[in-house]
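I'd like us to work through together how a protein chain folds, taking it slowly. To get us started, please write out a protein record for me. Go ahead whenever you are ready, and we will take it from there:
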Amino acid sequence: MIENINLGAKLKQLRIQNGYTRQQVSELLNISKSQIGFYETDVRYPSLPVLVKLCSLYKVSSDYLLNINQSDSKFLSLEGLTDKQIKALTDTVNCFRSLP
């Protein structure tokens, strides 16, 4: 059982931040609207495949959703960025990687 991670609150915040209704998310993930409500209120937790879809939809990592400490890793949150901004960052990182 997952405890003390505020998953439901994060899912609701991300849904609202991305301008989705519960109905829209349910259609995009092919699950019921009530399931989205259960996830957002911590009544139930998403299965791994659904968690992966949620991460992809909201462009966040599972570490972020599950409150896994990332202090020792090199991590850059892409939360809230557009696809164009993410591509620009990716291109920049790849440019730096190719330097001698």
